[in-house]
Structure formats: structure tokens, C-alpha cells
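Input.
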Amino acid sequence: MSHSVFIDGEAGTTGLQIRDRLLGRDDIRLVQVDPARRKDPQARREAFEQADLAILCLPDDAAREAVDLTRDMGVRLIDASTAHRIDPNWVFGFPELNSGMRRQIAAARHVSNPGCYSTGAIAMIAPLVKAGLIDEAEALSINAVSGYTGGGKALISDYEAGTAPVHFVYGLTQRHKHIPEIMTRGGLLMQPIFAPSVGNFAQGMAVQLPLHLGGDRTIRALHQALSDHYQDQDFVQVVAAADLGDRINPTALNNTNLMRISVHGDEEIGCATVIAVLDNLGKGASGAAVQNLNIMLGLPEAAGL
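Output.
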């Protein structure tokens, strides 16, 4: 049996990578709109009506419009935009977040795909809050670097033309769109300081969480809490710092749906950094969407990944 899937926004970076992961699968039939009609509401309506499940790879406002357009249909939705990530009526599509998430995703009509930076941040923070190693009201800082494909077509064009800087920091007003979901899904009461940046590489990401040590918060305790949370998970790995050396490569997991978390630091000095590495277009976007699609349709979770 095959399931029909429509990618609304297939021409974008995330949509193209989702399509590539679905092409050739005999359990998926792609519903596609003539490129000349991709913004035609009637053509899109017809595609939604044909689909069992649709993935929205659209700007926030366009994603909300798509939800309104499909309100009277039976099609299930995965939204890759920011529009519904803290909406209580949508299931947050991070299967590894807790023991009940897969059941919620499998039963949901509406699933919101996590953001790339927030996938890494939440993956580190949520288990440590649950374990009592981060206080929900603690003042945290999160630093991150991403490949330029996360910035959309204009930024991709700048880098490919050689007109963009080698590296830049942005989000300086502390209003980055991923902060609300990091707080909500990470279980934080105080807004963290978030310092995202972009480097001169297409894909890949490293998200860093610096922490002071003391009391029960030791390097070993941090590593153990994360290891316990993600044991038996296929796509999130907790790795000993000694296995990675003293340089973390943000592109190490490119073209996979994997995320790797490690804890680094010095107990005597009392400082540590928890680091998550992932592909911003893999576990941070397209791969995560396909993983959620597989769960929603009752297919093998790793299919196409």
C-alpha cells in the first residue's frame, strides 16, 4: 500500500531535500503541482485533496493560510515553518523528546516540525531540566553556528556568489524565532541568551550550551543523564568527549538524520560545554519531517533516512 504525500513548497531548500528522501520509495506516491501553478490556490487545493499527508515548507503566514485551506479536508499536516511550534493544538514533532512523543505524533492530524537550532538546544536542555541538572529558571546561554542553507535562497545566493562574509553572528536583539520553542519545549522559565551564527559551509550545525559545574552537576552526571534519556534511540547519539577530540566539526553528520551530543570541560576548573551536532537540513529540517511522516503513516521510522 502506498500513501499519497504533497509537499507544499517543494521548490525550496527544505522541500527539495524532503522530496529527494521520498523519491523512489514504493510506499510513497508524491502528489505534485505543475511548477507554473504552484502558487495557484485551486491547484494547491486539488493537491491537498489528493494527499493523505502534506508537508508545509512555507513562510509562516503562508503555512497558516494552508492550514485554513485544508480545514475541511482529511489531509494530515506536517508544518516545517515556525508558525505552530508552540501551538498547544499541534503536536511537536521531536520523537525523542519524551517516552510519549511517538504515540502523540502517530495519532496527530497536525504536527509541527522543530527548528534546526532548537532541535539541538532542546535535545540538550530538556533532559537536563528533567534530571534536575538545569533549573528551569536558570540563566543560560546558547551559542550556535549553522551552514548557510538555513538562511534561505537570498543567503545561499550570496555565499555561492562569494559576496557573503566567511562567518557572521546575527539575532543580536534576542528575538530569534527559535527562542519561544526552545523555552517551551525545553522547559525553561527564563529566556536564554541565544547567539546564532552562520559559517561559509552549506550544511551542518553545532549548538553549544555552556554550563558552570558544582554540586550534583558534574561532567559525568550531565553525560549520564543525556545517555539515559537517549538510550536505544536510532537518531540521537550521546558520545564521550574523549571519542571526539578537542575539535568539533559542525559538518560531521551532513546528509544524515543523526544528532550527536557530547559533554566537554574540566571538573577542576568547574566549566563545561554540552554540544549537539546535526545537519541543519537533516535532523534539523527535512530528515526530521520524513521521520515524522513515517511515524504518522505507520511506516518504518528509518525509511528513506
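The domain at 116-280 is CATH 3.30.360.10 (Dihydrodipicolinate Reductase; domain 2).
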